[in-house]
Amino acid sequence: MERKNKDLIYASIIWFVLTFVGEMLLPSWRFIASPPYSIEGELIDEAFNLLLVLGFPVFTFVLVALFYSIFRYRVKEDDLSEDGPALHGSTSVWLTWLIVTGLLAVIVLIHPGFTGVSELRSNPTADMVVQIEGQQWNWTFTYPEYDITIDKADTLVLPVDTRIRFEVSSVDVIHSFWVPAFRMKIDAVPGLTTTMYLTVTETGTFEENPNLRVQCAELCGTGHARMRASVEVVTAEEFAAWVEAMQANAP
Amino acid sequence: MSWIKGILFGVVGYLAGYWLSISLGVERGTEAPFAIGYVFFFAGWLLGAGVWDHWARSWFGLENKTPPTKESHGWKRYFMFSTDHKVIGVQYLVTFALIFFLAGAFAMAFRYELMRPGRDWLSPKEFNTVMSTHGILMIAVAVSAIIGAFGNFVMPIQIGAEDMAFPRINALSYWTTPPVVFLILGANLLQGADYGFDFGWTAYPPLSTVAGLGKLFFLLAFMTLGLSSILGALNILITVIRLRAPGMTWGRLPIFTWGVFTTSFLSLIFTQFVFTGLFMVVLDRVAGTAFFAPDQGGGALLYENIFWIYSHPAVYVMIIPGFAIMLEILPTFARKPLYGYKWAIGGFFGIVAMSATVWAHHMFTSGMPDWMTVPFMAATEFISIPTGIIFLSALGTIWMGKLRLKTPMLFALAVVFNFLIGGLTGIFNADVATDLQLHDTYWVVGHFHYTIVGGEIFALFAGIYYWFPKITGRMFNEKLGKLHFWWMFLGFQAVFLPMFWLGYNGMNRRIADYIPELAGTNMWVSASAFLLGASFLVFIYNVVNSWVRGPQAANNPWGARTLEWQIESPPIEHNFHQIPTVTGHPYDYGVEGSVHAVLAPQAEAAD
User: Is residue A42 less than 8 Å (CB to CB) from chain B?
Assistant: First the structure.
């Protein structure tokens, strides 16, 4: 009995230290992730961070129990002389485990689960509409408020700090409209118009950050991998100038 | 032999079906005569492979031929329509090991293409087909390998039965699988516009309704695989319910048998959905229906729903047997009872019950109504609770044990480690917010390889090493087994861990080409993939060499308690000299005086 308690104490200490150090280091994941360019992207990064923070103690718990057992209880490979103690786990151990795992599930379900859905997908207002149409294997961007349509576009120009509603559709098979830097995607489904709301927070171009690109994210046939377009986020003034130039060039 | 006769009958059947459909007025040059021809090929194949000789003759008043036995046909019975569950188990094991290596070779092919950005040697269309072929063949392995091999070989012995409940249906479910491989490889060999299938194993329409014979081949292959699953599941359920030895109560059933049993519920109930979904796609292609054609009033999202109602439970069809092998092996090599035996069974049933409620978490970005994402997110978070039970059961079993780190044990412990990473990364996919970024990226590729390869395939290898002495009667080389383990384990981590980073940083799934900024990591992943692939050469050498000239194995080399270890290695036909009487729990290590089963003394019974 004494040895059992000692092992529990040692393992708990290792678990605590490992978890503590890990939790200190975890937020630095942002240094190796490409930065988000939208309010929604920030929210998603926060949700990602929170799930990391909540998941990490579970990770270390299993890891410590696993490796502590392997190193502490290892015997010679052919030694069948002695059996371990016949532990079955008391009901209280199992109930505690169920309650802890259940609570963790409820916590992540409420936040960032429910909160995430309500923040990202429940406000149907926008300052501007951009229609995205996918076809094998390129994109058509339409700005209905400005009467601009760009067929087989290679660049999507967007104004910064503007809440945009993307209305996404497809003429042939299922595509998916994804801008990795915005952290959001929505499928382009033939026969449906799907929507996605975004506010871009920083200007930039594909050349500065390759994740500023429209990338088809649903396998759509031969040209799927290259079904891309650059994204250029510009200031409101630059956007107005771009609109004017586009309208002037229109036939 | 069955293979040759099956192919001959199959070709005759195909020609007959093709001719019949043309003469009934089906238009030449369309896909319909091929589809009808395949149905006749399939019937001919089964008849030739053995259904005629051993089954159908009696329908016409003829005498059935007796199935091959060791005495009558020796090793040749492994290539024949045997109804012996142990022969069928070995047939499944070897067939699916070959499919596994074949599918792995396809992965090597496309990882070579992905080593550098830009095009190396595969055209985008070839890449898509090679990637899809890898996918569907691995799905076949994951769905069928453990259930087919050990569900057949080990389960009946564990419950003290002489064979499966329906031996001929058992043979039928095995002989249903070769046409799957014929079709998949056939699609890869077609030329021109008919070549290949470029829509992934998910086969979402309208992409999967675009013309091309290779695409039709894929759909027919997947349906055939489904048929095999349904037949196998039915047989396992009845066997476990009806054929347990005296005293083998539900509370004494070995955990592996419980895993196979609960999995079979899933296969039996849900495989029908994917069969139906694929059948509707085939009808859209050949019969002019428009179930999934949006321009004619069909719905593209409808297919996604039908497909995932099967295909999410399918991942539990894959992983529950993996968990079950892990929980079977841990007590043996920890010399301790399975911790929380009844809770673990509850965990299996919990997963089974909840698996049907989570499917739309594959569709968070599909444009389904936002409010509808919430219940699926909730169900997905909650399915972590029964999974957590399995984990505590595993950890409680090794805690304070006497751990003997032999090869099967190393693989079983690796299942805990790998599935931990696979499970935790799944929570990020279950959360709607983070899934908007992660869906359809390499994050998901990393996640499901950690769960299915890291969980199930590592368990499959654990099972192969664990039951190898029982199946072959010979011991494998322990040093080579350990070498294979460490090589495969480290190679696996090196391939799939970086994928989480790739996914978050903008690399989506199923792409033949990527932006140059991701080149370094992809080079690493490809190089590691070749390393991982090479690890199986050690396995193949060890297994083949040991099977031929390994030392004789003892009846119970691991000191295990379940019934398969109390009989000869390899077991005699019908397993037992006399049906055993079960008197106690299978995992009572360290329990004074507990006896799992009483067998007739072998020498006495043999007299």
Answer: no
Residues in Cβ contact with A24 at an 8 Å cutoff, skipping those fewer than 6 apart: none
Write down the pLDDT at residue B607.
42
Q: What's the rounded Cα separation, in Å, for the pair B120 and A130?
A: 37
For the segment B512-525, the average pLDDT, to the nearest whole number, is 97
User: What DSSP state is assigned to residue B592?
Assistant: T
Nearest CA of chain A to the CA of B438: how many Å? 8
From the list A63, A76, A112, which residue is nearest B431 (CB)? A112
Q: Say whether domain B66-603 belongs to CATH 2.60.120.260.
A: no
CB contact under 8 A, B339 and A102: no
Residues 9-38 of A with CB under 8 A from B: 32-34
pLDDT tens readout for residues B127-178? 999 999 999 999 999 999 999 999 999 999 999 999 999 999 999 999 999 9
Chain B residue nearest residue A71, CA to CA: B403
Range of lowest pLDDT (A244-248, B26-30, B35-39, B486-490): B26-30
Work out the minimum CA distance from A82 to partner chain B, whole angstroms. Answer: 8
Residue B27 C-alpha, separation from nearest chain A C-alpha, in angstroms: 26
Render pLDDT for B307-334 as a digit per residue (tens, 0 to 9): 999 999 999 999 999 999 999 999 999 9
Chain segment B424-448, per-residue pLDDT in tens? 999 999 999 999 999 999 999 999 9
Domains of chain A with CATH codes: 2-74+88-121 (no CATH), 128-249 (2.60.40.420)
Q: Is B371 helix (H, G, I), strand (E, B) or coil?
A: helix
DSSP lists the bridge partners of residue A163 as A199
Q: Sketch the domain layout of chain B as residue ranges.
A: 1-65, 66-603
Return the bridge partners of A170, or none. A134, A190
Do B388 and A82 make contact, defined as CB atoms within 8 angstroms?
no
Task: Give A89's pLDDT tier (boundaries 50, 70, 90).
Answer: confident
Q: How many angstroms separate the CA of residue A140 from the nearest CA in chain B?
A: 19
Contact A80 B210 (CB under 8 A): no
CA distances from B177 to B130, B147, B170, B293 (A): 20, 13, 12, 31
Q: B96-113 burial, b for 16+ CB within 10 Å, e for fewer?
A: bbebbbbbbebbbbbbbb
| Contacts with B, A 172-231, CB within 8 Å | 172-174, 176, 178, 180-181, 183-187, 189-192, 194, 210-211, 213, 215-226
Whether B603 has a pLDDT exceeding 70, the answer reads no
Q: How confident is the model at residue B27 (pLDDT cuts 50, 70, 90)?
A: confident
Tell me if A87 and B392 make a contact (CB, 8 A cut-off): no
pLDDT reported for residue A129: 98
Q: What is the DSSP letter of B565?
A: G
Distance CA B241, CA B367 (A): 43
- Look over chain A and give the mean of its residue pLDDT values, rounded to a whole number: 95
Query: Which residues of chain B lie closer than 8 angstroms to A79, CB-CB?
Result: 402, 404
pLDDT average, residue stretch B204-231? 96
Contact B404 A82 (CB under 8 A): no
Give A7: exposed, middle or buried? Use CB within 10 Å, 0-12, 13-18, 19+: middle
Give SS3 for B271. helix
* H/E stretch holding B409: helix B407-430
Q: From the CA of A145, how many Å to the nearest CA of chain B? A: 24
Judge: B336–A185 Cβ closer than 8 Å, yes or no: no
CB contact at 8 A, A83 and B333: no
**In chain B, whose CA is at the least distance from the CA of A51?**
B428
